[in-house]
């Protein structure tokens, strides 16, 4: 057996059986359906035990303790410029691994509900629209065609760009310091 992580090994096996097929986890956010490739997903946990940190932008809801590791949690709705996610009984945190400066970082995203895993053929993926989406175009990797409807496939590296979020956090802190009375 190779030294690849289980998700990478299983996706390679999947690809060997059905060339070109890709698997996506679908989830709901503000009644819209989104998808992310499963190779980025480490696990899905129930919402709870979130520690809020003062003076962070609304999209960074706080951190969780995941088996001794501190994992930042991003509110995906707020990251898309919408209202913060209302926590409900189906609200989950999807733990993802994103690459940053040649190392893998664990980040959590808050979603309203996790739906299913889709096996998608290459012909089902359409290019991202240049207009009409309710989120930034660079956050969209493509559109998955499911007959009469589409699911937005996210470019998770772009959505969770650590450099961009760090810049936004720095801007937010600087704005609050500038607004503070001297």
UniProtKB/TrEMBL annotation:
SMART domains hit by this protein = CheW
Q: Which residues form the CheW-like domain?
A: 21-165
Query: What processes in GO biological process is this protein linked to?
Result: chemotaxis; signal transduction
InterPro entries recorded: CheW, CheW-like_dom_sf, CheW-lke_dom
One GO term of the cellular component aspect? cytosol
Cross-referenced PANTHER family, in alphabetical order?
Answer: CHEMOTAXIS SENSOR HISTIDINE KINASE-RELATED, CHEMOTAXIS SIGNAL TRANSDUCTION SYSTEM ADAPTOR PROTEIN CHEW
Q: What is this protein called?
A: Purine-binding chemotaxis protein CheW
- What is the scientific name of the source organism? Andreprevotia lacus DSM 23236
């Amino acid at each position: 057996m190779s030294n690849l992580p289980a998700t990478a090994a299983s996706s390679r096996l999947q690809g060997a059986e059905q060339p070109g097929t890709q698997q996506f986890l679908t989830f709901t956010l503000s009644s819209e359906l989104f998808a992310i490739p499963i190779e980025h997903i480490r696990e899905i946990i129930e919402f709870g035990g979130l520690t809020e940190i003062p003076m962070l932008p609304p999209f960074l809801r706080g951190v969780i303790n995941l088996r001794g590791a501190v994992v930042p949690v991003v509110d995906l709705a707020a990251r898309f410029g919408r209202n913060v996610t209302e926590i409900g009984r189906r609200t989950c945190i999807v733990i993802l691994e994103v690459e940053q400066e040649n190392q893998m970082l664990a980040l959590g995203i808050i979603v309203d509900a996790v739906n299913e895993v889709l096996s998608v053929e290459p012909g089902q993926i359409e290019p991202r629209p240049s207009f009409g989406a309710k989120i930034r175009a660079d956050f969209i990797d493509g559109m998955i065609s499911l007959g009469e409807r589409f699911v937005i496939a996210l470019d998770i590296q772009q959505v969770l760009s650590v450099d961009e979020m760090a810049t936004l956090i720095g801007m937010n802190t600087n704005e609050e310091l500038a607004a503070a009375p001297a």
